[in-house]
Structures are given as C-alpha cells and as structure tokens.
Amino acid sequence: MFYNLLYPLVGHFSALNVLKYITVRGAYAAVTALLIAFLVGPWLIRRLKDLKAGQSVRQDGPQTHLVKTGTPTMGGLLMILGMAVAALLWMDLTHPVTWVLLTALLGFGGIGFADDFLKVKARNSKGIPAWFKVAGQFVVATACMVWISFLPGYDSNLYVPFFKMPWINLNLLMIPFGIFLMIGWSNAVNVTDGLDGLATGLVILVGLALSALAYVSGRQDYAGYLQIPYNPWGAEVAIFCLALVGAAVGFLWFNGHPAEVFMGDTGSLALGGLFGLVSVLLKKELLLVILGGVFVMETVSVMIQVFWYKRTKKRVFRMAPLHHHFELSGWAETKVVTRFWLLGGLFAILGLSTLKLQ
C-alpha cells in the first residue's frame, strides 16, 4: 500500500525514492510483522487462555510433554496477522504474485485453524479428518498453481542444484508437481512442530535463505552474474519472505522454551504451504530439499517408522518424528531444539552455496 500510494509522489518528495529498493521495503516488512507479533502476542495469548484453547498432548508421547497440556494453541494466527499486514503495507498490491502469496497464507492457515479449533472443542488431538485436510490443501494449492501458470514470466522448467541449465521442462506437469510440493511441505513443517521453538527457529533459517535467493534472482544484474534464472517477481517474493521471517522471530519470543503458546496447525500448515509455493515461484523446487533438510529428515523418519512397523511390527526409532527419538534417548528438549537449529543452519548455508557451485 505504501509503495502504491507514496512512490508515485517521488517527483515531489525525492526521499520517497527509497521505496523502490527491495531491501528497504523488505526490512520494514520484517519489522512490521515483528512489531505486530510483539504487540498483539500478549493479548492473543490471554484471549486463547480465556477461551480455553489449550493443546491436547499425545498420551503416547514423551512423558515430559504432559506438562504442556493446556498451553494455548492456534498461535499461528499471530504470524498470519503479522505477515498479512506487512504484505499489504509494503508489497506492490498491483502485482498478482502478492495476492497469490496471500491466498496461500490465508488458505492453508484457514485449514489449520479449522483443525486446531476442532481439537480444542473436542478436547483431543484428532482434529478434522485427514482426508478433509488434504482435500482442502489440494484446493488451495491448485488455485495458486493455476493462477501463477498464467502470470507473465512463468517458467515450467525444473532446475537441479549445482547445475546452471534446467533439467527438464515439465510444461503442464508443473502444476500437479507444484501442488504436491505445497501439500508436502505443509505437512513437513506440521510434523516438525513438536518441541518448543523447534519449527519456528527452522522456519526463520529457511525464510532467510529464501529471502536471499529471491533478492538475487529478482535483480537482473545479480542473476546474470550468478548465472541463475532471472525472476520477474523475485522482489515481491523477497519482501514477503522477510515478512515471514519477522513474524516468526516475533512469535519465537513467546514460543521459546517453555512455550507460552504453540503455533498449531494454523501456523505450521500455512508456513509449509508457503515454502512450497515460494520454491515454485523462485524455481528452487529441488533446492528447497537442501534448505529445509531438517524438515525432510523429520518427515522421512515418520515414513520409515510407519513403513517398517507395518511390515515387521518393530520400530526403527524409539518414536517418530525424529526429535522425539532423541528426547527418548535422553537428550533434553532444549538440546534437541538447539542442535536441530544448528543443523538447519548448516543446510541453509549448503543450499546458498549452490549459487556459486554450479
């Protein structure tokens, strides 16, 4: 909004020229989302407590988690509010990619909110049926993918990390591939959200990496120098990713151990869905597997556990997802979170290194 309202006045007020810089709008988007989280957070937590919107903890999980019963959930509303307001204030509202990103944010967030609400209302950890949740994710992801397929500059090529040239042109198959990514990443972040601050910290790391990638791919000079595909909407994606980082940092203030509030499916489904969408927009679909390596590890651990248990009635891990395995192995919750954050940082650095190693 500020860009659309104020930048046309640059001829009268030269200071407004700063609004054309991605770094300026991105920085203020992050600060805006951060301040909203700081200011609204205490009020939201009180309201959730008044509404008795407490988390139902799995009875088969680590016994140390039983003390978390009753901790307010649906804290993802805080991040969604921060990101949405920051996007509306600092992004170009005439650019269709702004509205695609907001559609994914509100669509996936709405599905997660419905799931959290039913969990709270029924006082159990079931929520909405799995098939209904996936169906909702499919509808939102399909709408986003079809939408961007009509945008000028849309690229259906699939790029492989460490290689300059595209591997294959998926053409119309890019739409179902993108839908799969959005749903897959949505559930990957959801699976990882099991310890205080774990998913939030990892989201910050991946968000920062995606912000950097969006920035360099959104500038023709940097994209040309690095020999990566120039992305016409990279600037707006970078601003949105920085808003995501700001919102997550603000939320981590309340979500760090011991957590005052959990993001719930409201936050995890929205954040994961956005990661999948952003990877398609930036042509980093496969690179996101590296950037979000911890999310991949967590998801794969669940798949291995389920597959092996159905075949042998034995478990590979003490408990899945992977973070619970280490908890049951004797690691303190804070140690698991810190080490997973460090691992997430290494994955992010490795992913960014592909900008030159190609």
Topology:
Layout: H1 2-6, H2 22-50, H3 76-90, H4 96-122, H5 130-149, E1 157-159, E2 166-169, H6 174-192, H7 198-217, H8 220-226, H9 234-255, H10 264-281, H11 287-291, H12 293-312, H13 322-328, H14 333-353
Antiparallel strand pairs: 1-2
Question: Structural class of the secondary elements?
Answer: mainly alpha
- Fraction of residues in H or I helices: 55-70%
Described by the principal axes of the CA atoms, the overall outline is globular
Kindly report the average pLDDT value: 91
Portion in beta strands: under 5%
Which properties best describe this structure?
358 residues; mainly alpha; two-stranded antiparallel ribbon; globular
Overall description:
Helix 2 packs antiparallel against helix 3 (76-90) and helix 3 (76-90) runs antiparallel to helix 4 (96-122). The chain has one domain. Helix content is 66%, strand content 2%. A two-stranded antiparallel ribbon has the order 1-2. The chain is mainly alpha-helical. It is built from 14 helices and 2 strands; from the N terminus they run αααααββααααααααα. The chain is globular, with a radius of gyration of 20 Å.
Short description:
The chain has 358 residues and is mainly alpha-helical. It has helices at residues 2-6, 22-50, 76-90, 96-122, 130-149, 174-192, 198-217, 220-226, 234-255, 264-281, 287-291, 293-312, 322-328, 333-353; strands spanning 157-159, 166-169. It contains 14 helices and two strands.
